Amino acid sequence: MNKTITLAHGNGGQENNELISKIFYKHFKNDILQKSEDSAVIEDGKLAFSTDSFTVSPLFFSGGDIGKLSICGTCNDLAMMGAKPKYLTCSVIIEEGFSTRELEKIVRSMKKELEINGAIVVSGDTKVVPKGAVDKLFINTTGIGEIEYSGISASNLKDDMSILVNRDIGSHGATIFSAREGIELESDLKTDCTSLYPQVKALIDSGIEIIAMRDATRGGVSAVLNEWANASNVCIEVEEEQIPIQDSVRGICEMLGFEAMDLANEGSFILAVPKSDEVKALEILRETHNTSSIIGRVSMEYKGKVILKSSWGTKRFLDLPTGELLPRIC
Ligand code: MG
């Protein structure tokens, strides 16, 4: 472990995992934390509990802002464990001199997103720090959800299960990067930032068996698939041409040398279901996004590994992202 923290330690990939396991897990170790799911399942499986901090730069971007992100981020982690988001806290750290008009705009978008989830903010905190002590505004939200579907876990994947993605990937990362670098886009590229509870509810109501769900935030789809392969000790084989990527995202990746699979998302999630439920699951996901796709399958070929299969028949390992991806993406 390095002597000092680097930006790579916040990348949602390999270095981030190292930081968590070597410092936080080491001291906080307990059975619930050890599970490393999207949210902690507490009170005999009745409640899901999760927290997230938001430092995105810029604060406003195409399709969203830090307020929308701060509600989606926490509510989505609850939804990914089959829970209905209910109660949130909202804690803000504001830099002296920040515009009250912009602050209210951000809080208004939080309210709008809370309504979509049917959740409310029941506790909060505000801190104002001198100019330069923080960059404009940071938000933390913590949430409690009521579990409506039990047993979802990253460690439940078994041979031949199907892996799906709910929509095209990488648009949040590509949008933030373009906004930050002032890249003028002629396309209508915008963040995928969305509350996922309505899609999760539709899956639950359909009666299909949900094995695992995870939103592909920092570290992108690559991180989720690697975390699952590792947690379940299985191989995940992905068909490269089945991964939906918008042309504008592909263009930005080619221009800047990014992998769309590593880019952060805020409304894209990976779903694992038994093979017998894959068609029904795809139908439900397609009601929201026609780009939903069955991207791969669980196998036992290389346990703990993710394999990317190209349309040419070649195979390569897809690893956990490493290095400084895009800091302050969420
Ligand atoms: Mg998550």
Structure report:
The chain is an alpha+beta fold. The chain folds into 2 domains: 35-147, 60s Ribosomal Protein L30, Chain: A (2-Layer Sandwich), CATH 3.30.1330; 154-317, PurM-like C-terminal domain (Phosphoribosyl-aminoimidazole Synthetase, Chain A, domain 2, Alpha-Beta Complex), CATH 3.90.650. It contains 9 helices and 14 strands. The radius of gyration is 19 Å and the shape is globular. 46% of the residues are buried. The strands form 3 sheets. It has a 7-stranded mixed β-sheet. The mean pLDDT is 95. Magnesium ion is lined by residues 38, 77, 80, 214-215, 217.
Provide key terms for this protein.
25% strand, five-stranded mixed sheet, single chain, alpha+beta, 330 residues, Phosphoribosyl-aminoimidazole Synthetase, Chain A, domain 2, 60s Ribosomal Protein L30, Chain: A, globular, 9 helices, binds magnesium ion
Short description:
The chain has 330 residues and is α+β, with helices and mostly antiparallel strands.
